[in-house]
Design goal:
Keywords: Signal. With 222 residues, this protein is mainly α. The protein is globular, with a radius of gyration of 18 Å.
């Protein structure tokens, strides 16, 4: 599924050469492959995700523009952060010198390097997240984010900073559940399960474990 968020991230990069003539085929191919990668990854379909990402990267690399490939790597990092899978995004860092200031700022945001970060350079959905999290008032910052993928990316960024409010753990879990995104759902259910166990809430822990067992079960063969 090609979300509004992913389309917006990609369109800003791919629209640079847009004009009246039909756009080159690589643009549509790259955008479609990136969206397919994101959806497959979030659904837990790792093999499909790997194939689609390789296709997107190859389409962008065909232009000989490192900035486009850097963008693809940044999309991959953001999608992983949505599932609380963190690393230093090394493939993007290798290309960062050719990325835009906005993309370098977004990479810093995903990596948890928020000190001195200029919120104006971030995608619009994440500017308020940065500002509100810095205020440390514990209020939910995810609910106003309309796009589900952007909401989960923001949740992952907040979790990495250890600034996420309990209400936003629920928002992140519900978002993954509503979209049928198995990978982040299992991760966020796991976060809630640990919290319930730490609080001694055995009934809630049992309920969460049932959800984890159901979402993580191998589908029966027809």
């Amino acid at each position: 599924m090609k979300t509004i968020y992913l389309a917006a991230l990609t369109a800003a990069v791919l629209a640079g050469c847009a004009g009246n003539p039909p756009p080159p085929a690589w643009k549509g191919n790259a955008g479609s492959a990136l969206a397919s990668f994101s959806d497959a990854w979030l659904r837990g379909e790792s093999a499909i995700a790997a194939t689609e990402f390789a296709r997107a990267r190859a389409e962008m690399a065909s232009t000989g523009r490192p900035d486009l490939v850097a963008h693809a790597e940044l999309v991959r990092c953001a999608t992983r952060v949505a599932s609380l899978e963190y690393d230093s995004c090394p493939a993007f860092e290798a290309l960062a010198q050719d990325a835009t200031p906005a993309e370098r700022a977004y990479a810093a945001y995903l990596a948890g390097r928020w000190d001195g970060l200029d919120a104006a350079l971030l995608p619009e959905q994440h500017r308020a997240v940065l500002a509100t999290a810095r205020a440390s008032d514990g209020k939910s910052v995810l609910a106003p984010i309309a796009d589900p993928l952007a909401r989960l990316v923001a949740a992952g960024a907040l979790m990495r900073q250890a600034r996420i409010a309990p209400a936003d753990i629920v928002v992140a879990t519900d978002t993954a559940s509503e979209q049928g995104w198995r990978r982040p759902l299992l991760t966020w259910l796991g976060v809630s399960l640990k919290r319930a166990q730490a609080a001694g809430d055995t009934a809630q822990a049992a309920r969460l474990q049932r959800r984890i067992d159901l979402a993580g079960a191998t589908p029966p063969v027809p």
